[in-house]
Write a structure and sequence with these properties.
Elements (H helix, E strand, L loop, with lengths): L1 E6 L2 H12 L6 E9 L8 E8 L2 H4 L2 H8 L10 H18 L4 E7 L3 E7 L3 H5 L4 H16 L6 E5 L3 H23 L3 E2 L5 H11 L5 E6 L6 E6 L5
Parallel strand pairs: 5-6
Antiparallel strand pairs: 1-3, 2-3, 4-5, 7-9, 8-9
Helix pairs in contact: 3-7, 4-6, 7-8
């Protein structure tokens, strides 16, 4: 979910967000939307977007799409909400300069899975899925504006979500092996909140290994650490 908060400084805006949401600051990601420095005639002003990870809605990207492949679902949008949402996604991608076919692949209580079919899927995915994540964020913001904040819209193309999730699990285990052998921490590539949580969860029960997120903004890095030794 995405929320917006304001403050005289970035620190104050983040504190306001933490107090309002009842979360610690390591449970959400911050994106600076507007920033105005304090001057003789103007007060300082910072507006931030806070991205929280809805664990129930975000769990099982791959399982939802895998189940969808075995279930017959009407791919055409059902009702006004789905029609407006799929039209919005289509229009955004067309304005980017690419043709696309947008289909619904699964419908769950709080999740709506949408598949993008295009000859330019690699561009829609982008490096490490950043373009797909950006499109997905826009789709969720638009869904909220349509009055459906409770629904998590998940976009996929060419089974990227499944392939990425499997790749991250392998990366987590391989990194843990290296850290356990060398006793030196390893800092992984920047990841979105879901991907970071997947790394944390995968390594959570491995003895002598711990993880923590580092950095600022939506894309932070996970550091894999060997317990009890210098980092």
């Amino acid at each position: 979910m995405t929320y917006e908060f304001e403050g005289k400084t970035e620190k104050e805006a983040i504190e306001n967000a933490a107090n309002e949401l009842g979360l610690s600051q390591d449970q959400f990601d911050v994106e600076i939307l507007e920033s105005q420095k304090k001057s003789l005639f103007k007060n300082g002003y910072v507006k931030i977007a806070v991205h929280t990870l809805d664990e129930e809605a975000d769990e099982g990207f791959s399982s939802s799409f895998a189940a969808a492949s075995k279930t017959v679902v009407d791919p055409l949008p059902q009702g006004e909400f789905e029609e407006k949402l799929t039209d919005f996604i289509t229009n955004v991608i067309v304005k980017m300069g690419y043709e696309v076919k947008v289909n619904v692949v699964f419908r769950e209580e709080k999740k709506l899975g949408i598949k993008l079919e295009s000859q330019n899927s690699s561009i829609l995915i982008g490096r490490k899925g950043k373009n797909l994540d950006a499109l997905q964020l826009l789709a969720n913001i638009y869904a909220g504006r349509l009055g459906h904040e409770e629904i998590r819209v998940i976009l996929d193309t060419e089974n990227y979500r499944i392939r990425r999730e499997e790749s991250l699990v392998r990366l987590a285990y391989n990194t843990a092996d290296k850290v356990h052998t060398s006793h030196k921490s390893i800092l992984l590539e920047p990841m979105n909140p879901f991907e970071r949580r997947l790394i944390h969860t995968t390594l959570n029960d491995i003895p002598d290994i711990e993880t923590k997120s580092e950095g600022e903004g939506l894309y932070k890095q996970v550091r894999v650490i060997y317990k009890g030794f210098a980092r």
